[in-house]
Write a structure and sequence with these properties.
Four copies of one chain form a homotetramer. Chain A is mainly alpha-helical and 438 residues long. Chain A has helices at 8-13, 16-36, 42-53, 60-70, 73-85, 98-134, 154-179, 196-206, 221-248, 276-289, 292-297, 308-337, 342-350, 358-367, 372-388, 395-400, 403-406, 411-417, 421-424, 427-435, and strands at residues 139-144, 147-153, 181-182, 209-210, 255-256, 339-340. At the A-B interface, β1, β2, α7, α9 and α10 of A face β1, β2, α7, α9 and α10 of B.
């Protein structure tokens, strides 16, 4: 976790205090269930909750000090609780194994993290939607291969982003459902020393599903899937960021990240306004994505479990979620405050001398009876002249002066083909598909 | 694609012939829709289908030869079709762009591939289930950290695998649904030159959903998700393979890959029976997983599209699906024919002198009034002696001889604690969770 | 391997025939050494070489047929050789293990591949150098963050690429040296059944170093390093390719990939000239890079070896080397034939109204006695006006009209600060560093 | 960075204080050179060093507070220095750009990190060497595929590790040399505003090489190579760790991680001694390796630079080096204190009834005139009986009772073939190769 790329709410999920609070709740709910089953005295559960009701501070340093001796984190925690609760605490953790606590806790943390990320996605989607409708009909050039193609609108670009992040949301909802399971099944998952009803009780209390079959640990294919989804979301962040970076290039300048009055772009070149937020997001996407492979390497634990996954998760658990949360928040800000320059979009759209209408002419020639190959030649020979003039010549004028063309299409017909509205007639259709019909 | 790790059905999906067949169907269905809309003559569509009804051979070499000149694959294909169909073919591809064909074709191929993989998963699940029930109550030692822990059954190990691959199946079904979209939206996705109803028609005919908003291409987050799921499945294959490899180790030998009579394990050491299939699967898992990162790097295409994804997909499309299909098939064979040695499992289970029952004793001591810490000490001091004897001493006998222990638990009570059935009492519960109640 | 991204010379290295030829040479050289040591009759070695001198065709199908029965590739090969050579062949492979042959063969193949790649790099470096000197003093705008910064020359851009690929060459030479080792040490690397002098002899004959200590296999950290270097080279290819793609953008258009007369850029838009080669290279870089992680995952083989690396290497060995060879060749062609537009470079350089000289003014103001902060303010307030005019205003003229500025610097002094030569005065120095002093 | 996997010396390299100290030294040395060239007054340089000689505390909070306003870290730092040094500080940073400071600083940090890692490798190599000589002739079974093969010694296993980490050291030395460059070349690397001699001076003072050609930034292929080497080292750590984990398995138990008296292996099973250190190292290897791909993705910065690499490096710079340092230290401790059980090794070696000698018998039969195929059959039919008896039968006895065998080899000859010394006769040779002749 790098503090400059972290927000407090998500960071708090990964604090020692939050972890220990979750541990306590797991243990105490389990003790409730054990008491209900008659395995331990009801007074034991009551003692735990009575102490908890005092809202005790979690003394992380004290627990760490105990761990330094026992070299075992859960035992250290239980010892600390026992020091506070007293003799009744000995019934706690009855029949459970450390991983019951650790893995269920991780499930809670990842579910909490997913909830924040889902809210982040909602905020991002809202910002995108607002700007999409704002620029629904703002014409701009569509580019393939970085080369001018045909007109689109800036709203369509954002509609695409909206659809993409909507898919990301669905994926994250599925991944959250997968990860949110509770395992309290004992040393090798057989429930030998603990009744399955304890697991069911704790799961219900924590809003988790039960893990159908565990092997001391919750199987890591669930986590691999979770981090893979984060990696896909990061890749979508990269895509929109790269779009902004392209639009802000000096020669393009169709949009810019918001530039605050006090901000200095460069220590040397005071005129510079750099797309540093989206460049930063491009890098953060690489960081989030780097969690995917180790998460997949974590799946093949030996036999009923080894502990190689644990150190990996201590990194990628916080890093991937905190960084993604920050990145989603930053991207939302970029979209929300993006400076959009419709005039420059129009200027760029016009700069190629009408080449963007070439395909429509091609089709019209075909409709007018020319073969596809012939039409292609007619368009291309005029298009090339415009291209080589760097847009100083007009495709429309050249076509009007090409006798082979005018043999098929009149000047008026040609003029009608150079109509921008032709390209925008289905924007409503697409918006309805993406945002839902009004 | 490496031929030795490829099966014909999946390989055929990626053949040039299959690709061209799909291209034709897309073009011909689109022409139908265009004819219905009055954009092109109905005779054009009829001409295409009439020719197709003759079941013409796809002359890949001829198409390639045309491409060598045009340097454009779709134009080459259209030219070849036109050579065969005649003049009516000029109406084909009206208003479409190459990517409409290419991306929709890729969607069809990935959906076809997913269908095979889903069938593979079904076969694997069936094999696992059969063996799981066969060994539902075959006791074996559960191991954490590679160290003996407590008893499980071999059927439980397989139930875990069944649950894991069942999750893989659900993920793949979701990924298939995501990837199976049709985009026929023209040069930059605006439908400027083609009515959205064409897309809807082709989608329906090919069993695809429409792509809500495309930008010449289908957005690559869909593909990233698809390959990520393949990577997770591969990781689960690795997990089960590593389990078999461990079980086949000389010192463990609880199970073995089937060894055919004519097979030679080593050119030098004729006695060797190596788990080469599961070692191979471990490697193939790495191969499939290696597709995930480039698929994610493909997401951030520039503006409305660049073509950097294309070369990546020419590799990972076939490689990841063909290799995963092969791997699933191979793993199914391994499971199906796995030699399982219950006697050896029992022998291994017994080799630690009863240490596997230590936790139960610990709990019983706690129940009998000892503190958790005291119980721990009592068990550990006896357990350590057994451990150091390499299982020659018996934990039960030592406990019976420890006065501090017998002060809490009688000899009979101790004996009762060393009962294997205690560990297996919830196997039915777990099987019901995994396979569904009878 | 994808045929369209493969060249014959590199592909041939990975053919079955080449592999079997190398196998034979390893076996025959080893037999020579064994004969010299008196372990086998000299007639055995002679028989092998006599047969080899007849330049026998390698009957891959026959060997494959034998393998189908034995399920062991080296035994199949030895059987086939014995069928051809006769009884003397029984002395072949004495004391060796399959991996002695397989791993030493792979070392030869990777060394052969490295030699081709090194030649590729030489050709690329030569092309870059030629174009670098051609455009040594062609002014163009330097960009950071995609935003105009200060002038550079196009030759400097290429000098940077030259330096980068020179480093790549050194890395590949080191990786080649690392990978080119010979191991003939028997079943677990102890030389129990084969004298170390056999290994030394074969190594010398094949131009390899001896592997100091092997464990049936050559340790895979060597291979991991080799593929990591290929991944770095691929990343450098991506960098230069992305540069070309940027330069070819419609709004920039300072350079273009060569566009052959018959080439069609788009089936729909005949005017398009797309940077498809460098986009393709961007994708191929992802492909080559994807070999790095599995190669690293291959390192941790179990004990003296397992065979999980083998399937991985069957993919990444050919794929990474063939694809990188193709990519280097393609990039060399791109550089060699790149269309460079100095006039457009100058036009872009001028389009910001002189903002590129802002830092020099800043420094001059500081030298003239203004504080750094004051100077910054003076420059920025004028620079911002130019920026907002989209380069229609001239920074020089604005500065001349700013009394706070002219209080420090005269009009003539200001004019002198807007001299392009100021930025190019150290180009020779840098060229000397990169290409060596004349 | 995860504190529990971090050591203070390496962590300090990445502290804000260390970074600011390096920044100051770069700036002050540069001011010296500028003063020498007459660009700035010598008093300016003196003022900086005079202040520095007071050993001023680095007020990180103050610098951060300034950055919160300027949103630019280097400007914030310069402002803070100026507040302390006074008016003379305005000559600092003359003609430089932020990246001159940032990238040269990163080079210093990575070189510092490499020095620690090189020392770590030396310590590890020393520990391995000591244990290797200690167990140079301790016989143990060599295993391929996890299956018993032929005898080796435990010292040989360690010699292999020694050779592998020696290679890692050479790679890291090369990577350190590559990364340790100084760039002070101004806004786009042209030295327009700063003389190349400044760069040369600072480089010399900081023990760096000059960067031959930079583009505001030091090219990122250097960093990609650096992190790739860390990834390879991590993979070698994983290999040795996996070896220890295998040796500690209950059924194998040939070695164990040191187990301290107070340590609890499990909260539930007091008898457990788990290889948690090497399992942890297996996970940490995945973490370090995960830096490789983003480092490679950082190479293709846009034009003269973008800043996407920066956020990535804020993670992987500290994470990969700190984690690798910790891992190397931990592995050194594991090797140093490893509990090795020669008796158990011998027991395991004997458990297969002499099958480990099968190849030698095979060769002897061949030498005695049997064909290779015949010999193979003779050995295998007896070997299979031993195998199926789980080592209860003796291969030597069975061979003595096989008339077809004794027709070729006498009982005494057979007995002589079952000699362990035969397998160890070249251990000295291998040790000489790895550790150098005495």
């Amino acid at each position: 976790m790098v503090p400059r790329y972290a927000r407090p709410e998500m960071t708090a999920i990964w604090s020692a205090e939050n972890r220990f609070r979750i541990w306590f709740e797991i243990e105490a709910h389990a003790t409730d269930a054990l008491a209900e089953l008659g395995t331990v005295p009801k007074s034991a559960a009551k003692a735990l909750w009575d102490w908890w009701a005092t809202n005790p501070a979690i003394d992380v340093a004290a627990i760490d000090a105990i761990e330094a001796v026992t070299k075992h984190d859960v035992i250290a925690f239980l010892t600390w609780v026992a020091e506070n609760v007293g003799d009744e605490a000995r019934f706690m953790h009855q029949g459970m194994t450390s991983s019951d606590v650790l893995d269920t806790c991780l499930a809670v943390q990842l579910a909490q993290a997913a909830d924040i990320l889902l809210a982040d996605l909602d905020a991002l989607l809202e910002a995108i939607k607002r700007r999409a409708y704002e620029h629904k009909l703002t014409p701009t050039i569509g580019r393939s291969h970085g080369i001018h193609a045909e007109p689109v609108t800036f709203g369509l670009k954002l509609a695409e982003a909206y659809a993409e992040f909507s898919r990301c949301k669905l994926r994250l909802q599925a991944a959250r459902a997968e990860i949110a399971t509770c395992a309290i099944s004992g040393a090798v998952g057989t429930f030998a020393n603990i009744d399955p009803r304890v697991e069911a009780h704790v799961a219900a209390k924590l809003g988790l599903a039960i893990e159908p079959v565990s092997t001391q640990v919750i199987p890591r294919d669930r986590h691999a899937m979770f981090f893979a989804v984060l990696g896909v979301i990061a890749s979508s962040i990269e895509r929109l960021s790269v779009e902004v970076r392209h639009l802000q290039r000096t020669e393009v300048l169709e949009a810019e990240e918001y530039f605050s009055p006090g901000q200095k772009g460069s220590s040397a070149m005071p005129h510079k306004r750099n797309p540093i937020l989206t460049e930063n997001l491009t890098g953060l996407a690489r960081v989030v994505r780097s969690a995917v492979t180790p998460a997949m390497e974590n799946v093949a634990l030996w036999h009923e479990r080894d502990i190689s996954h644990s150190s990996v998760e201590r990194f990628i658990g916080p890093d991937a979620t905190i960084t993604l949360d920050f990145a989603l928040g930053r991207l939302t800000g970029v979209v929300d405050k993006l400076l959009v320059y419709p005039e420059r979009m129009q200027k760029n759209l016009d700069r190629m001398g009408g080449l963007v209408h070439s395909q429509r002419v091609l089709l019209a020639l075909t409709q007018a009876g020319a073969s596809r190959e012939e039409s292609y030649v007619l368009v291309q020979r005029n298009a090339m002249k415009v291209w080589e003039s760097d847009g100083q010549l007009s495709l429309l004028e050249l076509l009007k002066g090409d006798a082979d063309v005018t043999a098929k299409l009149s000047a008026d017909e040609l003029t009608a083909l150079f109509d921008l509205g032709y390209h925008l007639k289905h924007v409503d259709t697409i918006f309805d598909r993406v945002f839902g019909a009004a």
